[in-house]
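Quick log. Single chain, no ligands specified.
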Amino acid sequence: MKFKTRQKIESHIPTASMADIVLLLLIFFMVTTIFKLEEGLPITLPRAESGADQERERLVHIWADRFSRISINDKLVRTENINAIVAAKLEENRGLIVAFNVDHRTKYLLVSDIMEELKDANAVNVSFTSMYEED
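-> predicted structure:
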């Protein structure tokens, strides 16, 4: 008597098109995903109802215009002299406030150089302002 060999039935999942399906799902999720930009914290800034005038002895005004001229308390100075002038004024008065006024057309390199000089002079109380002047 001859026995028949049984053929094994294999369960096989075709994976030939699996890469296509994964690629389509990837494209679908990339297209439909919404990327929310960072908005920061939801805050409401306070409005100033009044201001306090500072004594002239507590303020040092630094002005920079679009022609790269720098003025400290109405005296024209060079960038490399800012450190010494502000450091000398800080020695006289530790509570000194530096009011840094910049024209909106001033090159940022000049602003950066002045800020570096202020940092080297340990001027920690700095007020930054900018006024827009129409031509």
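Residues 101 and 129 are 5 Å apart (CA to CA).
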